[in-house]
Structure formats: structure tokens, C-alpha cells
């Protein structure tokens, strides 16, 4: 009878371990922590990508401040009637420049509000929407015409009369815009920058007084 290495089937095997084929790590099933981790990584990547895109956009678009310049005016009428109603006929000639080399601008809305001494609003005017290519200048003609009830306090009435005798009026124009940028073939969402023009406008009837070209301050 051979004392061979006969192993009875019903006895536990205590010999050298049978090498066990470990499945490759990748095929291990993803637990709930792993899923969370992956989701977090994806979200983080998206946030970082959006951040970089925003940064690039900022650097490209930020220098694009439209430049508004009032180059000449025609103030045909500016009278205070009955101490409380202003009759006006004012035309502004304005250059709107897009200084950027790569960006076009859609002016979806361009509204002009005229005020006497900054806070006495008396007129509104708008221009039709338009597109402005890069490095382009648009010449706008903006006319305000009509009459408006304007109850001025006595000291403002006094300065009105003083200005009338000098032939110049201090008139402020606020430009409200709604614009979109065209960058590299795609169009951005809307921005609503505004501009302020502080003007000293001579009455046209006094042929000797000149208007000095005035640059407006743009806030983007
Ligand atoms: C306007 O007000 C002044 C005083 O500020 C007064 O002398 C003048 O009569 C008033 N004019 C009218 C048309 O009411
Ligand atoms: C307003 O002024 C313009 C010139 O800028 C003139 O053509 C127009 O007739 C004026 N309007 C009125 C009502 O006087
Ligand atoms: C500005 O735009 C207008 C109209 O799109 C075009 O006719 C003109 O040539 C442009 N000017 C410059 C300097 O690009
Ligand atoms: C124009 O304004 C000047 C300076 O205020 C004044 O001396 C001159 O008389 C005015 N001329 C007319 C036609 O109103």
C-alpha cells in the first residue's frame, strides 16, 4: 500500500495554497464612496473649467468699454415757461466707438435720458437697435423734443436764469444700454452698462458759443 499523498476528499486540505487569480482592480465594483468621489471630481472639474472660461472671457471682454463721445450739439430751444414747464429741442451728435479688435457689439437697446442739473429728468430718446463690428465707430444723432413739467426749486430756477444769460446750460445725459458681445463666432448673454455725459451746451441761437467735444464715463 503506498503511503502516497492521497488526500481523502472529506478532509480539509492543508497543503500549499492554490494561487488565486485576483481580478484586476478596475473590475472591482464601485462602492457608494467611490461614486460620490467620482461625482465630486466631475463637479470640481466643471467648476474649474467654468472658472477658467469666465477668466478668459473677462480678460477678452473687460477692455471692451464702448466709448461715447458727444461731438456736437444743437440746442434750438431750452425755455422755462410759467416757471414750471421746460420746452426743449436738443440734438446731440454722438460717436459710439467699439475699440476692441476681436469683439462685435449688438446694441439691443440704447436709451438716452436727459436731465437738467443731474436729477431733473426732462426727456427720453432712443435709437433703433444695431450691430457694431470690431474697431468701428457709429455716429448717432439723438433728438429730444417736447415739453415737460419740471418744478424746480427757487435756487435751481435762479441758476437756470443765470445759465440762460450766459448762453450755456448744464445738461446731463445718462445712456442706458443693453448689449451682447460677439466673440469668436458666439454671442454672449446681455450686459447692461450705462454711461454718463456731463455737458455744457450752448444755445444755438448764440452763434458765437462753441460746444466742446465731451467724453462720457462708461460703467460696465
Ligand atoms: C416765476 O418765479 C419768479 C420768482 O422766482 C416770479 O417773480 C415770476 O413772476 C414767476 N413767473 C411766472 C410766469 O409765474
Ligand atoms: C428742433 O430743432 C431741429 C434742428 O436741430 C429743427 O430741424 C426742428 O424743426 C426743431 N423742432 C421744432 C419743433 O422747433
Ligand atoms: C463699420 O461698420 C460699417 C457697417 O457695418 C461698415 O460699413 C464700415 O466699413 C465699418 N468701418 C470700419 C472702420 O470697419
Ligand atoms: C452770445 O453769448 C455771449 C457770451 O455770453 C454774449 O456776449 C453775446 O451777446 C451772445 N450773443 C447772442 C446773439 O446772444
List key phrases describing it.
220 residues; alpha+beta; Immunoglobulin-like; 4-stranded antiparallel sheet; 11 strands; binds 2-acetamido-2-deoxy-beta-D-glucopyranose
Q: What kind of sheet is the major sheet?
A: 7 strands, antiparallel
Beta-strand level of the residues, as a percent range?
Answer: over 45%
Rg is: 36 Å
Question: Mind telling me the CATH class of the domain at 67-219?
Answer: Mainly Beta
Judged by helices, strands and strand pairing, the structural class is alpha+beta
Spell out the helices and strands N to C.
HEEEEEEHEEEEE
The level of helicity is 10-25%
Distance between the termini: 102 Å
Helical run tally: 2
Report the principal-axis shape: elongated
Instruction: Give me the CATH architecture of the domain at 67-219, please.
Output: Sandwich
Overall mean pLDDT: 86
Bound molecules: 2-acetamido-2-deoxy-beta-D-glucopyranose
CATH topology of the domain at 67-219: Immunoglobulin-like
SS elements, strand count: 11
Contiguous low-pLDDT stretches (5 residues minimum) are none
Topology:
Layout: H1 32-61, E1 67-81, E2 85-98, E3 103-116, E4 120-127, E5 130-132, E6 136-149, H2 154-166, E7 168-183, E8 186-191, E9 194-202, E10 214-215, E11 217-219
Bound molecules: 2-acetamido-2-deoxy-beta-D-glucopyranose (4 copies).
Transmembrane segments: 34-61
Keywords: Membrane, Transmembrane, Transmembrane helix
Subcellular location: Membrane
Amino acid at each position: 500500500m503506498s503511503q502516497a499523498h492521497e488526500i481523502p476528499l472529506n478532509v480539509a486540505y492543508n497543503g500549499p495554497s492554490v494561487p488565486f487569480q485576483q481580478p484586476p482592480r478596475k473590475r472591482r465594483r464601485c462602492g457608494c464612496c467611490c461614486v460620490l468621489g467620482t461625482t465630486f471630481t466631475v463637479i470640481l472639474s466643471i467648476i474649474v473649467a467654468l472658472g477658467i472660461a469666465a477668466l478668459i472671457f473677462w480678460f477678452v471682454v473687460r477692455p471692451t468699454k464702448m466709448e461715447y463721445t458727444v461731438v456736437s450739439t444743437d440746442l434750438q430751444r431750452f425755455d422755462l415757461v410759467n416757471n414750471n414747464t421746460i420746452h426743449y429741442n436738443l440734438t446731440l451728435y454722438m460717436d459710439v466707438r467699439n475699440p476692441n479688435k476681436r469683439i462685435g457689439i449688438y446694441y439691443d437697446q440704447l436709451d438716452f435720458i436727459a436731465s437738467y442739473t443731474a436729477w431733473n429728468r426732462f426727456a427720453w430718446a432712443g435709437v433703433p437697435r444695431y450691430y457694431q463690428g470690431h474697431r468701428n465707430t457709429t455716429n448717432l444723432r439723438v433728438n429730444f423734443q417736447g415739453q415737460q413739467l419740471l418744478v424746480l426749486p427757487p435756487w435751481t430756477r435762479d441758476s437756470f436764469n443765470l445759465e440762460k444769460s450766459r448762453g450755456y446750460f448744464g445738461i446731463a445725459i445718462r445712456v442706458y444700454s443693453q448689449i451682447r458681445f460677439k466673440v469668436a463666432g458666439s454671442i454672449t448673454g446681455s450686459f447692461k452698462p450705462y454711461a454718463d455725459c456731463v455737458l455744457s451746451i450752448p444755445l444755438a441761437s448764440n452763434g458765437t458759443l462753441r460746444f466742446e467735444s465731451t467724453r462720457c464715463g462708461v460703467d460696465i
